[in-house]
Design brief:
Elements: H1 2-8, E1 13-16, H2 18-23, H3 25-33, E2 37-40, H4 53-56
Parallel strand pairs: 1-2
């Protein structure tokens, strides 16, 4: 995606879980180096219907 965005001069906001930022730091750095914005939105992408009441609130 970065190659396509670079080719067409597109910058975007990438919403990335904190776990992904920590695990794939070099990929996140590449996104930032190309002028995109990272919007962190929690630690994991949980499947909300599978959460119990305490986890979902």
């Amino acid at each position: 995606m970065l190659d396509v965005f670079r080719r067409y001069g597109i910058t975007a906001t990438w919403c990335v879980p904190a776990h992904t930022i920590q695990t794939f730091r070099s990929a996140v750095d590449a996104v930032l180096e190309d002028g995109h914005v990272i919007g962190a939105h929690g630690v994991y992408d949980e499947f909300v219907p599978a959460l119990d009441r305490e986890e979902g609130s």
